[in-house]
Design the sequence.
């Protein structure tokens, strides 16, 4: 798998922005890992694909909504590496098939199976999974969002890459959080002197400190209304960031995280001249602008 995707670059970007507090800000460009299987989705899939191949599977079966980055990445990875793919889609409305994500998945060979939202809630039920495998044949099952122990093994490789590229331990590593697989992997391999900041993309998360990992801190004030929600302020920030840096971001995860990092810096959260690494987790297929 490493012959397909090499470590992503680390770019310093503070000099490309204006009104930035005196921190050394770097962006870990996981959006550049692969044109379709980019960001944390590649890292989550990597060891699962190795396991699927080792177990003799030729089919991947997974779950997601009509705009799912995970479905998109799994379909692309299947085409790239020779796996048949089946995507179980939340919702049985015919209009969902017109989603650009679903259309891409079908174009690269993924078989789309729509189920009602009620049935979709059984996605972890063994009887439901057995029914799907009886219908579509034996398959390696990937969870919604792609997060499992093997996924975390892949995301844990982020921190050693950062340490090698930077040549030192950063003061902080920042990452958007959805299902939590990427931030968990980073926290597992982060040195104790590095704060690991997880910026929640979902509304209603109240945990701010993980007692088992004292350097892992969740930031809950930058969800902008909840998952896939946005505001004019966030979209203005996103457009301005892209204009100044030339780096595309998206509004569901990375834009929220970067907005939060700079807001924290302006409010004195980081010490002056702190080295801060923000992880661009990809997902650009879901990018929209006004």
Sequence:
């Amino acid at each position: 798998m490493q012959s397909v995707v090499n470590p992503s670059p680390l770019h310093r970007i503070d000099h490309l922005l204006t009104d930035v507090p005196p921190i050394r800000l770097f962006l870990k460009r996981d959006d550049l890992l692969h044109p379709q299987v980019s960001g944390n989705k590649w890292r989550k899939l990597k060891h699962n694909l190795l396991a699927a191949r080792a177990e003799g599977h030729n089919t991947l079966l997974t779950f997601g909504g009509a705009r799912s980055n995970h479905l998109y990445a799994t379909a692309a990875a299947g085409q790239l590496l020779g796996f048949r793919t089946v995507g179980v889609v939340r919702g049985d409305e015919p209009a969902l098939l017109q989603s650009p994500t679903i259309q891409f998945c079908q174009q690269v060979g993924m078989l789309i199976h729509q189920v009602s939202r009620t049935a979709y809630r059984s996605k972890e039920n063994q009887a439901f999974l057995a029914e799907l495998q009886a219908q579509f044949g034996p398959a390696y099952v990937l969870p919604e969002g792609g997060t499992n122990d093997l996924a975390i093994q892949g995301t844990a490789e982020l921190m050693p890459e950062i340490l090698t590229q930077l040549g030192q331990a950063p003061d902080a590593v920042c990452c958007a959080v959805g299902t939590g697989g990427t931030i968990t992997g980073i926290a597992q391999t982060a040195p104790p002197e590095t704060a690991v900041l997880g910026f929640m993309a979902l509304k209603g998360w109240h945990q701010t400190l993980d007692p088992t990992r004292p350097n892992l801190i969740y930031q809950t004030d930058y969800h902008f209304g909840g998952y896939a929600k946005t505001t004019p302020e966030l979209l203005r920030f996103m457009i301005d960031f892209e204009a100044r840096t030339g780096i595309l971001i998206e509004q569901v995860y990375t834009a929220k995280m970067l907005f939060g990092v700079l807001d924290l810096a302006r409010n004195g959260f980081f010490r002056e001249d702190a080295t801060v690494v923000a992880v661009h987790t990809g997902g650009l297929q879901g990018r929209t602008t006004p």
Notes: The first strand starts at residue 10 and ends at 12.
